């Protein structure tokens, strides 16, 4: 996807602001995507300046590669099943800080890391803020390849326009070897909670790119500076 210079600036602002929430001695989760790249670069800089963390759990192979290239100490959920803080991007964010994630295909590990973390902070540019989820982005549904067609049909029965994710003309496989069925809801998603429950009950579906009730705050880069949206249940 092409990003304008303004959008990239907003992503960078959000990524750099989020680093302020990381304290010495923390174990953190680090997300995936273009905004997360800015955050990871800013983290590497802070570590060079003296911040010390116990380790970072990457949410994808791409993030693991970048982080280790930049000298960020990596760890995993076996060594640290509970994280202090996870920071990640999002594809859509609504007024209750409910999210669509998984545009980069990392939703399964992203959700595992978010669920393992005491605090979950989202970083994004203003284009990600929406009044209702689903208008612009599909909900990615990570599925076992063997269940591709039955899952596709059951997702269709839930009202989704379903598209098997491809990359460079080939079926896209996640870091866990699964496929992604992108579910489009052109009229938006009326009840994200009900949709999540219904999608999760499909046998062969591993995880859904709807992140509900997980986000503590969203840090949004904008032309007028950084906005912080806090979840107040
Ligand atoms: C990857 C994700 C990303 O966090 C999401 O797609 C946002 O990406 P970007 O920061 O590049 O806009 O969920 O699976």
Describe this structure in words.
The structure is a single chain. The model has no long low-confidence stretch (mean pLDDT 97). It contains six helices and 15 strands. It has 233 residues and is an alpha/beta fold. It has a six-stranded mixed beta sheet with strand order 2-1-3-6-14-15. Strands 8-11-7-12 form a four-stranded antiparallel beta sheet. The protein has helices at 5-18, 34-48, 61-69, 107-115, 148-157, 192-200; strands at 27-30, 55-58, 83-88, 92-93, 99-100, 117-125, 139-143, 161-164, 166-167, 170-171, 179-184, 205-208, 210-211, 217-222, 225-230. α1 crosses α2. The two termini are 33 Å apart. Residues 31-36, 88-91, 101-107, 110 line the site of ribulose-5-phosphate.
Summarize the structure.
This protein has helices at 5-18, 34-48, 61-69, 107-115, 148-157, 192-200; strands at residues 27-30, 55-58, 83-88, 92-93, 99-100, 117-125, 139-143, 161-164, 166-167, 170-171, 179-184, 205-208, 210-211, 217-222, 225-230. It has 233 residues and is of the alpha/beta class.
């Amino acid at each position: 996807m092409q990003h304008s210079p303004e959008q990239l600036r907003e992503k960078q602002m959000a990524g750099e602001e989020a680093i302020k929430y990381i304290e010495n001695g923390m174990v953190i989760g680090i997300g995936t995507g273009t905004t997360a790249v800015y955050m990871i670069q800013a983290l590497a800089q802070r570590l060079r300046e003296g911040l010390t963390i116990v380790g970072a759990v990457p949410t994808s192979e791409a993030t693991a590669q970048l982080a280790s290239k930049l000298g960020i100490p990596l760890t995993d959920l076996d060594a640290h099943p509970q994280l202090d803080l996870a920071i990640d991007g999002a594809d859509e964010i609504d007024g209750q800080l409910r999210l669509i994630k998984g545009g980069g295909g990392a939703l399964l590990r992203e959700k595992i890391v978010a669920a393992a973390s005491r605090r979950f902070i989202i970083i994004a540019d203003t284009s990600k803020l929406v009044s209702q989820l689903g208008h612009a982005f599909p909900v990615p549904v990570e599925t076992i390849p063997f269940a591709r067609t039955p899952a596709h049909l059951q997702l269709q029965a839930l009202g989704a326009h379903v598209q098997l994710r491809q990359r460079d003309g080939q079926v896209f496989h996640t870091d866990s070897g699964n496929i992604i069925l992108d579910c489009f809801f052109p009229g938006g998603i009326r009840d994200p909670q009900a949709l999540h429950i219904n999608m999760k009950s499909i046998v062969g579906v591993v995880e859904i790119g709807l992140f509900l009730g997980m986000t503590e705050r969203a840090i949004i880069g904008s032309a007028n500076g950084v906005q912080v949206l806090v979840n107040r249940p």
